[in-house]
Design the sequence.
C-alpha cells in the first residue's frame, strides 16, 4: 500500500498539468516563447535614446540676454539663439525652432522657472505625510 506522502499533492498537480500540456502544445508558445518575443520587440522599439534638444529662438531686444542666461543655467537640454523677430518667426514656421520667446515674456519665464524650483524644493524638504 502506497503512503500519501508530503509531495503527493504536488506530483498529482504536476502530472495533470503535463497531460494538459501534451493535449494543447500551443500553450508552450503562449507561455514561454511569446512573452520573450514581446519583451524583445518592445525593448528594441523603446530603447534608450538621449533626450531631444529643444531649440528656442529669443527675439532680439531688451531682456534677450537675461532670457538667454536664464535658459542656459536652468536647463541643459535647451539650445537657445537670439535672433531678429522676422528670422525667429520664419525659423519657427519652418520647424527649425520649437519655441519663439519675446523679451516681454522674460519676467514671466523667470517667475515660472523660480516657482517650479520652489515647488520642487518644498516637496523634497517636506514630503507629504499620509
Sequence:
Amino acid at each position: 500500500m502506497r503512503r500519501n506522502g508530503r509531495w503527493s499533492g504536488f506530483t498529482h498537480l504536476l502530472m495533470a498539468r503535463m497531460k494538459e500540456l501534451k493535449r494543447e502544445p500551443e500553450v508552450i508558445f503562449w507561455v514561454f516563447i511569446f512573452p520573450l518575443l514581446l519583451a524583445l520587440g518592445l525593448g528594441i522599439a523603446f530603447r534608450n535614446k538621449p533626450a531631444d534638444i529643444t531649440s528656442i529662438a529669443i527675439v532680439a531686444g531688451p531682456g534677450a540676454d537675461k532670457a538667454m542666461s536664464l535658459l542656459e543655467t536652468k536647463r541643459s537640454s535647451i539650445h537657445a539663439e537670439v535672433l531678429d523677430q522676422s528670422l525667429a518667426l520664419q525659423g519657427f514656421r519652418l520647424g527649425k525652432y520649437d519655441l519663439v520667446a519675446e523679451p516681454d515674456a522674460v519676467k514671466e519665464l523667470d517667475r515660472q522657472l523660480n516657482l517650479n524650483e520652489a515647488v520642487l524644493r518644498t516637496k523634497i524638504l517636506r514630503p507629504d505625510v499620509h
Remarks:
- The longest helix spans residues 26-45.
- The helical segments are 8-23, 26-45, 64-74, 85-94, 106-125.
- Confidence is low (pLDDT under 50) at residues 123-127.
- The beta strands are 54-59, 78-83, 99-101.
